[in-house]
């Protein structure tokens, strides 16, 4: 690209003239798409990255300084960083979905009550009521954590915290090996 055209595009960007985006896309679009695709390795994601990059370029147009970098270098960095962020976002989302599919954390419930744990309800009375309520909903009423959250009108994160603390309190009463046996009976 000629330095005159580059200078013209920079002037248009700084004037916030929409022609700048058209010229950028026309002269750099394919190359920037290639940068995005190399990072995300997916055509659809690369197209999303390219679109997000052009939005960022437009919003950050006043921050471009030709004394610090050539226009292409600046565009390249924005596109590459956007692609990396997109890839991380997609990977994080995929990890969370996998964990939810594989994890039993949302599927806790009662399949059977074994006689050796019949005194658990009595011992629940020894811990704070806010933990009792959650443990009873999950283990004795057979609710999932999500269902307990909705039924008890308690945020899901709070349900999880109270479950953890409640189990820790029961562990103090029963000991580690008994608690493990107790939990395994509910999860099997």
* Count of domains: 2
What order do the SSEs take from the amino end to the carboxyl end, as H and E?
HHHHHHHHH
User: How much of the polypeptide forms β-strand, as a percent range?
Assistant: under 5%
Describe the biggest sheet?
none
Which outline best applies?
rod-shaped
Name the average pLDDT.
81
Number of separate helices: 9
CATH homolog superfamily of the largest domain: RNA polymerase sigma factor, region 2, helix turn helix motif
Number of strands: 0
Distance between the termini: 66 Å
In angstroms, what is the radius of gyration? 28 Å
Topology of this structure?
Blueprint: H1 3-14, H2 19-40, H3 43-59, H4 71-102, H5 120-124, H6 129-140, H7 145-152, H8 156-174, H9 176-187
Helix pairs in contact: 1-2, 2-3, 2-4, 3-4, 6-8, 7-8, 8-9
How do you describe this structure in short?
The protein is built from 9 helices and no strands.
Key terms for this structure?
Arc Repressor Mutant, subunit A; Rna Polymerase Sigma Factor, Chain: A; 2 domains; mainly alpha; 9 helices; 188 residues
What features would you describe in this structure?
With 188 residues, this protein is mainly alpha-helical. It has two domains: 3-102, Rna Polymerase Sigma Factor, Chain: A (Orthogonal Bundle), CATH 1.10.1740; 115-187, Arc Repressor Mutant, subunit A (Orthogonal Bundle). Helix content is 74%, strand content 0%. It has nine helices and no strands. The chain has helices spanning 3-14, 19-40, 43-59, 71-102, 120-124, 129-140, 145-152, 156-174, 176-187. The longest helix has 32 residues, at 71-102. The protein is rod-shaped.
């Amino acid at each position: 690209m000629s330095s005159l055209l580059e200078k013209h595009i920079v002037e248009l960007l700084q004037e916030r003239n929409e022609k700048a985006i058209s010229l950028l896309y026309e002269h750099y679009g394919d190359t920037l798409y290639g940068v995005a695709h190399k990072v995300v390795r997916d055509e659809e994601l690369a197209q999303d990255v390219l679109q997000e990059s052009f939005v960022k370029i437009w919003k950050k147009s006043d921050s471009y300084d030709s004394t610090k970098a050539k226009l292409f270098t600046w565009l390249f960095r924005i596109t590459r960083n956007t692609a990396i962020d997109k890839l991380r976002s997609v990977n994080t989302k995929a990890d969370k979905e996998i964990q939810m599919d594989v994890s039993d954390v949302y599927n806790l419930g009662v399949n059977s009550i074994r006689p050796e744990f019949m005194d658990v309800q009595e011992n629940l009375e020894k811990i704070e009521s806010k933990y009792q309520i959650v443990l009873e909903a999950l283990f004795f009423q057979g609710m999932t954590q999500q269902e307990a959250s909705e039924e008890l009108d308690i945020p899901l994160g709070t349900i999880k915290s109270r479950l953890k603390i409640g189990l820790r309190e029961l562990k103090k009463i029963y000991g580690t090996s008994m608690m493990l046996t107790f939990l395994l009976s509910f999860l099997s």
